[in-house]
Amino acid sequence: MTTAPLSLHHIIKPSSLTEKAPVIFMFHGYGSDENDLFSFATELDDKYMVISVRAPQPMQPYGNAWYTINFDAAGGKFSNEEEAIESRDKISTFIDEALKAYPIDEDNVTLLGFSQGTILSYAVALSYPEKIKRVVALSGYVNEDILVEGYQDNDFSNLSFYCSHGSVDQVIPIDWARKAKPFLDQLNIKYKYSEFPVGHGVAPQNFYEFKTWLN
Fold first, then answer.
1. For residues 175-198, average pLDDT
2. Per-residue DSSP letter, 152
């Protein structure tokens, strides 16, 4: 089931509920597309409407990105933060559009991201916490430079995070992910943090743990 009028291309798994369905928005990683994380959808509780979103920048020969990464930059990787902020706000707008278009419970919105999708899920939730209840942050990290100015003054009391990372991740160093703990502690945000002995991916036990956390 695909719909066109909303501002970002997406695919949907409907909820078993006909109204006020809890929703999980999925945001894929760099170079992937909306079908990637959508494979989780059938394994999640039927009550969830699942909306998997395609990033706005097409890549060659295939795949999509939320923002440009220059892998040849000094220091390893350079992220285009202006594009990342643009994508942060595109996602925020898309969530508003989806709440109007579909029978969703606006007080039960979960973001599930992987890698670049996680970086943006952190950014959306920390910038606009009034819109989000939970975040599943897989194999990503907090980039403070793409959060709205003055985010520290937001009310985070209804927000919680599930954060996980591969201890041998060769794409995003584990040290970057570990910084989420003191960061979230400082803001008094509830979270669960786990590491798994894998690279840049989601181990089966990782999936079952966040599924249990969601329920």
1. 97
2. G
